[in-house]
Amino acid sequence: MSISTExxxxxxxxxxxxGLPRIDDPLKIAxxxxxxxxxxFFEQLQVLEEGTHEYQYARNTLIEMNLSLxxxxxKRFRNRGDGQMEDIIQVGTIGLIKAIDRFExxxxxxxxxxxxxxxxxxxxxxFRDSTWxxxxxxxxxxxxITLAKAKEELTTVLGRDPGTAELAEHLGIEEEExxxxxxxxxxxxxxxxxxxxxxxxxxxxxxTYGDIKGDWDPAMELVEDLHALAPLLELLDERxxxxxxxxxxxxxxxxxxxxxxxxxxxHVSRILSRLLTKLRTDMLTQK
Length: 287
Description:
DNA-binding; Arc Repressor Mutant, subunit A; RNA polymerase sigma factor SigF; 2 strands; 13 helices; 3 domains; RNA_pol_sigma-B/F/G; mainly alpha
């Protein structure tokens, strides 16, 4: 192991524990030297009191010396795009810190072998939990990955995309669960409403998804109300239903209804008021 005197010197700094070299720039330590120094630093980390300057020096130096492991693990996620690489490095560093805090020399395993699964696991958890456009339960997030693998395997065997029943049989789960997973997959990415429809994106008259997106239709609430009202109308007697039908179905005035039934307009008004109050109360009770 060759470490220059500029990089590692005898401990003259009171924050440097006895028996450890002072490393001015841990980031410049070669991976091979980091592995050799690691055992020495981990040995001291186990006997130093947590929270002291000496402990922080040993722990922070271990983190910085092993950041190359994060870079190494992050390479397998290059296809996620350069824009996310900074986040990947940060999340991977969290995995490295967890590995350092949990590593024990008694494991008789190389720290690199111990740390890389922690780093990769933390990055995968980041993509699983943080990159979904719509939040879905973790069970469905994991099912999406399982379905993707199963679909790839069956496509190779069948020479075509597998159906829901085939996926369910292959995975040994219910078809309804497969459907839930496929629906949940739609929440992984979301497109902008400003994206144009079709391939012609240069036209000034380009229609976007936002232009055709449905808006709230107040008539839908009316349909729901009428659906809830129908069984309540069946509970009225024939004369009451006829009054409701004439007033709201045929748009007759109270005077016209009174003349048709041979009663006064005031009487019609009282009947309608009683019926509407009853129907409104019964609908609210149903809700």
